[in-house]
Amino acid sequence: MDTTSLLLSPPIAFVLLLISALVDFWLLGIIVNKGTERKGKSKPYACGEDVQHHRLQPDYGQFFSFAFFFTIMHVVAMIIATVPSGSLPDSLFAALFTISAATGLAALFRKDA
Known about the structure:
Elements: H1 3-7, H2 10-31, H3 61-81, H4 88-108
Helix pairs in contact: 3-4
InterPro entries: NDAH_ubi_oxred_su3_sf
Keywords: Membrane, Transmembrane, Transmembrane helix
Protein name: NADH-quinone oxidoreductase subunit
């Protein structure tokens, strides 16, 4: 076993990367600006405006539906695009997956009476 394949084995590579990350974390801990000498370092950025308190609390409740919709549609497009041509079982799986995704999206966007 040569040195390259030994270094690329998963346990050795994991330990080396872990050591590298810990050294980086330690070095950045030394460099980071600690203390209060820079006023406003922990305040929210507001384009130079002095914000006394948070005035806006956005509601992401409606955002979830659209994010879920786009995620499901991208997965469906990927499944359909990667089906091998001429493979009946894979085509049936893709069709079943598309139907179940459409059912899930219909349930997600249904209007309650």
